[in-house]
Amino acid sequence: MKFSSPAFAPGSAIPQKYTCEGQDVSPPLAWSGLPAGAKSLALVVDDPDAPDPAAPKMTWVHWVLYNVPPGASGLAEGAAALPAGTLEGLNDWKRTGYGGPCPPIGRHRYFHKLYALDVVLPDLARPTKATLEAAMKGHVLARAELVGTYQKR
Question: Comparing C-alpha atoms, which of 101, 69, 95 is closest to residue 82?
């Protein structure tokens, strides 16, 4: 499974536009090569370096999506219109939707994790990342990851 963004290369800086210092819109994402039998996709974006990369204390969740149809080949910048059937979970701001990088100190890593699942999950009523991960257990056919970094100016 391939997973990328035309906005930034793997391991490189996420453009300011996609952060709290810019328009705070989600970057465009693209994927291909889903495994046979994939019935839905899930996406989690998180930052394991919070609050300080020198002394991380938690993983901050920026975006949670699930039941993305496998026929979708990606998400447009800003993801204003999600593919039909896609459901949203709660990020660590306790809201749905994308929340861009906004690190208080240092350069943080942002992990965009895409999962191909062998099921369409039931409506989990705005799950947290932990709730979604528990529901996905035993159903992940493949996983791909795209990491970008950001440090405030």
Answer: 69
Which pLDDT belongs to residue 80? 83
- Rounded to 10 degrees, the C-alpha dihedral 76/50/93/25 comes to -20
Query: In this structure, which amino acid lies at residue 64?
Result: V
- Please check whether residue 115 is in contact with residue 73, taking contact to mean a CB–CB distance below 8 angstroms: no
User: Using CA atoms, how far apart are residues 131 and 68, in angstroms rounded to an integer?
Assistant: 17
Q: Are strands 87-88 and 58-68 parallel, antiparallel or unpaired?
A: antiparallel
pTM over 0.90: yes
Rg (CA), the chain: 15
Model pLDDT for residues 38-55, shown as the tens digit of each residue: 999 999 999 999 999 999
